[in-house]
Amino acid sequence: MKKVLVIGSGGREHALCEALSRSPQVGQIFCAPGNGGIADLAECLSDYLAGDFAGLADFVEAQSIDLTVVGPENPLVDGIVDYFQERGLSVFGPTKAGAQLEGSKAFCKDLMARHHVPTAGYRVFDEFDDAHGYLQSLDYYPVVLKADGLAAGKGVVICENREDALATITDMMEAKRFGEASTKVVVEEFLRGEEASVHAVTDGETLMIFPTAQDHKAVHDGDKGPNTGGMGAYSPAPIVEGPMLRKIERDILLPVLDGLRKLGIRYRGVLYAGLMITKGGPRVIEFNARFGDPETEVMLPRLKSDLYAILKAAADGKLSELDPPEFDERPCVGVVMASGGYPGPYAAGKPMYGLEDAGAQPDVTVFHAGTRLRDDGGLSTAGGRVVCVTARGDDFRDARDKAYGAVGRIRWEGAFYRTDIAHRAIGKQPV
Ligand code: AMP
Ligand code: GLY
């Protein structure tokens, strides 16, 4: 039986561990550092940080682990895959060069421009005076300002007018609000439409498209309030199904993979396209080099095929040997429950109740994002996003009702959630 190590501690990693635990080949799962829910499925290595490449690789060697799956972007951008490969270890994720797709917005935009991939018009600036002058002369707003590097999902600012844009560029480039990440800034055309996420697993040659999904980034109902890591999601996303998905594969995913190959990068891992479906067709908002969170929590419960086989084949460059993956046709809806105050400051350590009851409901899986197992066996909150409560159903309404039914059974002081997850899909057919 195979042994797997998953790196990360969020809802995405819980969903990865859950899908891996369903693989007939997998005998043991480790997760570094893991969380209170992952502890039910995996041995959590709470002393290991994702940045401790040498410590993790030593552990993998000592335990003869067959595959390491990297969840979050930071270790990928910092080169964990290069390090593991140098040590001869099998690992799922792109190398540092490939992870630039997410780690540098300028790299990603330039790659797309060279290969005519539809995306928002843009300019890259590394001098404050040039950026300031450009924004001063611009006469169409809103405009989008993006820190080039990783900024924990917070490096994108939509500026409604010139005053706003000039203040933001000063904040980014002069005051270095995002540190090194904003020494370079991308100024981008504002796109209108509906957002959707398309994920593909690839070994650099073959693409395996996963179910489509849509997340809800804003903190409050009606997409109001500041952006978060994601307050809920559903899969599939009807807006990108059918012919639209084939167009996205042909016009976006394949040209990007080809572009990476032309740079000498054999990209193995997840290609995640964040898209805006505009009146003029799909446009790329961003690429990520890992699975989305919370999209993974609604995609993977639908996966009927062996996730271990897929990730291992991608890591080994053998994806073409696998049959196409099979997915449950029923949709899945996931509602994130968060700590009061999130995405601003929030309290942690709140005792949680009702999780077992919620998880025992038909078609429901509760993925933990920020929870901690206490010494007495109970669970406490340990993050902004605390759990993602997912449910499958016969249609979107059924899935949504089951998810909210389970949400109603979970309690802790200060818990809140959006009440309108999947509203765009309700009444639509899943495929
Ligand atoms: P990102 O971190 O690139 O995913 O951006 C965060 C969010 O900002 C996206 O999910 C969109 O809602 C919004 N956004 C980013 N770029 C654009 C754009 N060019 N036009 C409109 N909205 C955008
Ligand atoms: N759900 C958005 C992300 O994972 O980046």
Strand content: 25-35%
Q: Count structural domains.
A: 4
What Rg, in angstroms, do the CA atoms define? 21 Å
- What's the name of the CATH homologous superfamily of the largest domain? ATP-grasp fold, B domain
- Poorly predicted spans: none
Number of helices: 13
CATH architecture of the largest domain: 2-Layer Sandwich
Bound molecules: adenosine monophosphate, glycine
Biggest sheet details: 6 strands, antiparallel
Number of strands: 23
The CATH class of the largest domain is Alpha Beta
The structural class is alpha+beta
Overall pLDDT level: 94
Proportion in helices: 25-40%
CATH topology descriptor of the largest domain: D-amino Acid Aminotransferase, Chain A, domain 1
- Shape by Cα distribution: globular
Distance between the termini: 36 Å
Give a description of the structure.
This protein is an alpha+beta fold. The chain has four domains: 2-93, Rossmann fold (3-Layer(aba) Sandwich), CATH 3.40.50; 127-183, Dna Ligase, domain 1, CATH 3.30.1490.20; 194-321, ATP-grasp fold, B domain (D-amino Acid Aminotransferase, Chain A, domain 1), CATH 3.30.470.20; 332-407, Glycinamide Ribonucleotide Synthetase, Chain A, domain 4 (Alpha-Beta Complex), CATH 3.90.600.10. The chain is built from 13 helices and 23 strands. Strands 12, 15, 18, 19, 22 and 23 form a six-stranded antiparallel β-sheet that branches. It has a five-stranded parallel β-sheet with strand order 3-2-1-4-5, sandwiched between helices. It has a four-stranded antiparallel β-sheet with strand order 6-9-7-8, with helices on both faces. The mean pLDDT is 94. Bound molecules: adenosine monophosphate and glycine (GLY). Residues 215, 230, 288, 292-293, 295 line the site of glycine.
